[in-house]
Amino acid sequence: MEKFKITKKAKIAMAAACAVIAAFGGISFAQRTTLADYKNITLKKEKTTAKKSEIDSYIQQTQQQYQKEVKRAAKKGDVVIFSRSGTCKNKIINELHMASAQAILGKDQFKKGYDKQLIGMKPGQNKTFNYTYGKKDTSDHCAGKTVKVSITVKNVYEVPKLTDSFVKKNLMYDNVAAYKKYVKNMIETQKKKEAKSYYEETAWNKVMNGTTIRKYPKSIMKECNDQLDKFYRSSAKNQGMKWSAFIKNYFKTEAKYKSQLKKQAKKQAKERIVIQKIAKKEGISYTDKEYKKREKKLAENFGYQSVKNLEKNNDKSTIKAYIMKQDILKVIMKNVKYK
After folding, report:
1. In the record, which residues are listed under signal peptide (predicted)?
2. What number of other Cβ atoms are within 10 A of residue 54's Cβ?
């Protein structure tokens, strides 16, 4: 059974489906809900400093983009493409078979000891050698065994050295130091972005998990259920699948689909109630001008060509709730404590 995957543009509908604030429904949940202390969230601080190994790995991949195939014997620093097979006591070990493997010689990145065997080999050359696996080495299902390995070199590539002239000519930086600084900043910027997303998701989950709802109104559950059902049926249509085939592929049976739908509807209904209560407590609302500006920005962020296209794929109440959730997250994150 294939797992259902959600496209980027569908994330708005799935993340904020049914999250309609009180202004749209006028329903009070005060007697049914105990809201989590959303201004007292503690999170573990993530490390966002770039490691030397991460910087080196990125630079190495960049260097390999400029590699050139050579017909000479492989030497330290080259990239070698080879095939591999192996036997143990004359029995073929299927796990050792690889039609194409890659090793950067001198780093033992493929498997310790292979570089020594590959250095000096030319394209088309074959070599057989004994290799003993450690008792705890389960990578090839050969722990503790001595196997006869056969390798055949297919290609040898020479990787240019990282020099000031290489960096200046190909990467448009004055020298190696300047390029390494750029790579370090780029990795750390990405790590900070990922950490921010992780903090927001974790904090929101803490708020959701810490909120207790004693009774879910039937009207809200039905609305959420209907919206999610509409989403799935639209997905089936967009994929050119009959509904029965869609159900079989992603949920196996109609009964399992309905069960899953009920769980998702309950989760979305809870999010609706949490957003409504926090928005009311924090006095979060928008003028028409403010809302139109935010809606335009949201359309751009999710790759829609216009607000009209955004509204064509998502109902207005869901869009407004999604925008409101982002402002609620700002309130939550402003008060987060890190340890």
Report:
1. 1-30
2. 15
Vertex 224 angle, CA 222 and 227, to 5°? 105
pLDDT (tens digit, 9 = 90+) per residue, 304-321?
A: 999 999 998 887 878 888
pTM reported for the whole predicted model = 0.76
Q: How far apart are CA 170 and CA 26, in angstroms?
A: 62
> Considering only CA atoms, which of 317, 54, 335, 31 is closest in space to residue 206?
335
Q: Are 6 and 14 in contact (CB under 8 A)?
A: yes
Q: Mean pLDDT of all residues in the chain? A: 90
- pLDDT for 223: 87
Distance CA 285, CA 23 (A): 9
Question: 108 or 195: whose pLDDT is higher?
Answer: 195
Q: Which residues pair with 152 in a beta bridge?
A: 83, 126
**Closest by Cα among 320, 309, 329 to 9:** 309
Structure tokens at 80: 């070698």
Query: Which residue is associated with the tokens 């921010």?
Result: 196
SS3 267: helix
79 φ, ψ (degrees, to nearest 5): -100, 125
Domains, in order of start, for the chain: 11-35+211-338 (1.10.3120), 67-159 (3.10.50.40)
Q: In angstroms, rounded to a whole number, what is the distance separating the alpha carbons of residues 108 and 117? A: 11
Range 271-281 average pLDDT: 92
Q: CA–CA separation, 36 vs 273, rounded Å?
A: 12
Helix (H) or strand (E) holding 256: helix 254-282
